[in-house]
Design brief:
Layout lengths: L1 H5 L1 H12 L1 E4 L3 E7 L2 E6 L2 E4 L5 E8 L3 E10 L5 E12 L4 H9 L4 H20 L4 H4 L3 H19 L1 E13 L1 H74 L4 H19 L11 H21 L1
Antiparallel strand pairs: 1-4, 2-3, 2-5, 6-7, 7-8
Helix pairs in contact: 4-6, 7-8, 7-9
């Protein structure tokens, strides 16, 4: 008891020192004020303050934070678009000037969150208002880039930085969704009908080609038979004429040569070829006449 009475002042000093010890958790910084005026920043760890004079005005998190947002926008063609977004942001850095902005720009965290969400919503709405409903689904990346470009400078003035904006879902009014479904179904049906039409056309073309080929083959066969019959009749006629001239003691070479020239003329008039190759030399003519005579002898032998 005597110790307490004699050293009360020492105990008082110890209590005052303990009252001035403050702990700042990792990922947080403390803003210290003296009689309401900014004084300094407390970094994470065990810190000593002037008891009863210095006060921790606010503890600010420098960790990443996220919020989810749902809002509506209207396109240039007056269609309602509903967005579900996730916003990721953080304090720009732990510098003293930045911490002072974060601590004193807004009265509370609630006012800051309201200003942040309204700014993002307004920026998205201004972008969507310049686009048509049919374009929105393909413009996710453009919307995110536009929002970042527009609000990054503003957030820096507040001491914050926008890390990411993710558009999780984009939906439309029920009537528009049903209309889009009908359009997609009609497109699918049209594609199937077009496929069937092209398939039928391909089958018809194949059948037409097949029929034409068969007809050509039959025509070629008939032409071959006609040529064979023509050659047979020519040989028969030449043989009969040669026999008659022989019985009349006339030179058969004259009639053979005449009929040979008539045959060449007939080939030239009715043949489909453009060129007839003939050997007009004396030896060639002699050879041709021998072949004709041999054909006549063969023909007469068959009779």
């Amino acid at each position: 008891m005597n110790f307490l009475i004699n050293y009360w002042w020492l105990i008082l000093i110890i209590l005052i020192l303990f009252a001035g010890l403050k702990t700042v958790n990792q990922g947080m910084v403390g803003v210290v004020t003296i009689f309401g005026k900014y004084q300094r920043v407390l970094l994470p760890g065990l810190r000593l303050m002037i008891p009863f004079i210095e006060q921790i005005y606010k503890k600010i998190s420098i960790q990443n934070r996220s919020i989810e947002m749902e809002f509506q926008a209207v396109t240039a063609d007056q269609a309602n678009v509903y967005f579900k977004n996730m916003l990721l942001y953080s304090v720009q850095n732990a510098n003293e000037d930045t911490i002072k902005k974060v601590a004193f720009k807004f009265i509370s965290e609630r006012e800051f969150m309201q200003a942040l969400t309204r700014t993002v919503e307004g920026t998205v709405r201004s972008f969507v208002a310049t686009k048509r409903q049919a374009e929105i689904l393909a413009l996710r990346r453009e919307i995110v880039e536009y929002v970042k470009e527009q609000i990054d400078v503003l957030l820096e003035e507040w001491g914050y930085h926008l890390l990411d904006l993710q558009i999780n879902d984009i939906t439309f009014d029920k009537a528009i969704i049903e209309s889009m479904s009908r359009v997609v179904a009609a497109a699918e049906n049209e594609g199937q009908a077009l496929l069937i039409t092209k398939t039928k056309a391909a089958e018809a073309d194949g059948n037409s080609i097949k029929i034409a080929a068969e007809a050509e083959r039959e025509a070629a066969r008939l032409r071959g038979q006609g040529v064979a019959l023509f050659r047979q009749e020519v040989a028969k006629g030449m043989t009969e004429a040669a026999e008659q001239m022989k019985q009349a003691n006339l030179d058969t070479n004259v009639i053979l040569f005449s009929m040979w020239t008539e045959a060449i003329k007939n080939f030239a008039e009715y043949g489909k070829g453009n060129v007839i190759f003939l050997d007009g030399s004396p030896d060639g003519m002699e050879h041709t006449m021998k072949q004709i005579q041999a054909m006549m002898m063969k023909q007469s032998g068959t009779h």
